[in-house]
Amino acid sequence: MKKLIHAKLAGYILLILFGALLVFHVLILFNLLPSGMVWGGQAGNYSLRTLEIVSLAFTFLFSLVVAAKIGYIKAGKFAKVI
């Protein structure tokens, strides 16, 4: 099977997209973008601030995993997990 793109290129593209997603959630968190754009416009029983902080944490965690997987940062103790 022919590869369309190399794994490192895919990782760099993911890091760029995760970075854009982090910026988007920060803009929502500081009310610079309308909150109706996220969570289907209905935050439910949770506060929007809590949900945005959880989103930021998970996006940052996924970014770290991708960066470690492509060798951009050193995994150290967590090399087996990654």
Instruction: Please state the average pLDDT score.
Output: 85
Work out the strand percent. Answer: under 5%
Individual helix count: 2
Largest sheet data = none
- The strand count comes to 0
User: Helix and strand string, N-terminal first?
Assistant: HH
How would you sum up the global shape? elongated
Distance between the termini: 25 Å
List low-confidence stretches.
Answer: none
Q: Percent helix among the residues?
A: 40-55%
Query: Which class of secondary structure composition applies to the elements?
Result: mainly alpha
Oligomer: single chain
Radius of gyration over all CA atoms, rounded: 16 Å
How would you summarize the topology of this molecule?
Layout: H1 7-29, H2 48-69
Describe the protein.
- With 82 residues, this protein is mainly alpha-helical.
- Helices cover 55% and strands 0% of the residues.
- It has 2 helices and no strands.
- The protein is elongated and about 40 Å long.
- The two termini are 25 Å apart.
